[in-house]
Amino acid sequence: MYKIAVIPGDGIGKEVMEATLNILEALNIDFEFIFADAGDECKEKTGVALPDETIEIVKKADACLFGAAGETAADVIVRLRQEMDLFANLRPVKSYPGTKSLFDDLDFMIVRENTEGMYIGDEDYIKDESGNITGATAKRVITRDASERICEYAFKYAKENNRKKVTGIHKANVLKKTDGLFKEVFYEVAEKYKSEGIESEDFYVDATAMYLLTRPKSFDVIVTTNLFGDILSDEGAGLVGGLGLIPSANIGEERALFEPVHGSAPDIAGKDLANPTAMILSAIMMLEYLGEKEAANAIDKAILKVLSESKTVTGDLSGKSTTIEMSEAIKEKIEF
Ligand code: NAI
Ligand code: MG
């Protein structure tokens, strides 16, 4: 039996979570879903966006499903990543038929370092003698340990998932010390995996922003630092047709949290219009993490069928179905 912490959160987070649990409950797998509060509504009710009780539930679970939070998203998700040391952020870039994907047959994985880099929150103002703010600085931290851990994760992921190549992305020509170290560590790890048949290469992040548009099919697994990973993965989302389709995983040594990339979408919340695919694909990533590969594949195939037929899909995919109708259609297509 798997204990799954479920945080629906705000807005469409609740709707896509319901649509996803609808599918998980139909599987022949024993789940115990433990619901926990977090987000804007939780803050209104209890005074805090992320109660200690929620953190406790998540820590005791085998995995966590997270819908979306609203304005409190940073307090909720950044804190959860820290509390659970979820150092690897995985964002697949995969094209499905029947979507607004710019390319067919895209399938690569972006592995983003999730704990340091530009996101340590160490910013300062520069002030003149009278105390006027004349500028600001932000500190960027790259450590050997965190770089090794994320590069090792990316190469291991490549090996275990039949991927052939890992591309390290950096800006070592300008950020000589920080990204110089990241690049050095990347090739140390790459060397270990050479004999396993995993190729390696590295590019500057600016060139990569272009290559993602001009030759995205040349990528297999990308590994990069926090901020670059954040930006490139949104570019990846744009490549394959938008937020309603993009899942993500936050993985630590012992814990993991799965969430769609999108937010609470206040413009469509409460109208049953949200595309549940991103949340369902996040649940598929959770099933893979738990070792339930067969169930993961079965749902993935069902999604593929529903998207290809373009009949029972939501408005963002030019369809007329509701969130739950699309979830039902996917459920009906699952072959056990
Ligand atoms: P958003 O992702 O909520 O929405 C952006 C646009 O995409 C909207 O037009 C929305 O209708 C559409 N969209 C998003 N998901 C969709 C889906 N599943 N189906 C169909 N259309 C979808 O981002 P936005 O508008 O920047 O932020 C709204 C709120 O969400 C903010 O309060 C923000 O802080 C929060 N947020 C939370 C995140 C999280 O919990 N991880 C991530 C991003 C934003
Ligand atoms: Mg982002």
TrEMBL record:
Cofactor or coenzyme needed: Mg(2+)
Which SMART domains does the record associate with it? Iso_dh
Q: Which PROSITE patterns match?
A: IDH_IMDH (PS00470)
Q: Which InterPro entries match?
A: IsoCit/isopropylmalate_DH_CS, IsoPropMal-DH-like_dom, LEU3_arc
Answer whether the UniProt record assigns the keyword Cell membrane to this protein: no
Reading the lineage from the top rank, the first entry is: Archaea
Output one GO BP term.
tricarboxylic acid cycle
Q: Establish whether keyword Transferase is in the entry.
A: no
A GO molecular function annotation here is: magnesium ion binding
Q: What are the record keywords, sorted?
A: Magnesium, Metal-binding, NAD, Oxidoreductase
Assigned protein family: Belongs to the isocitrate and isopropylmalate dehydrogenases family.
Q: Which PANTHER family match?
A: DECARBOXYLATING DEHYDROGENASES-ISOCITRATE, ISOPROPYLMALATE, TARTRATE, ISOCITRATE DEHYDROGENASE [NAD] SUBUNIT ALPHA, MITOCHONDRIAL
What is the official name of this protein in its record?
A: Pisopropylmalate dehydrogenase
Q: What is the lineage of its organism?
A: Archaea, Methanobacteriati, Methanobacteriota, Methanomada group, Methanobacteria
Q: Which gene encodes it?
A: leuB1
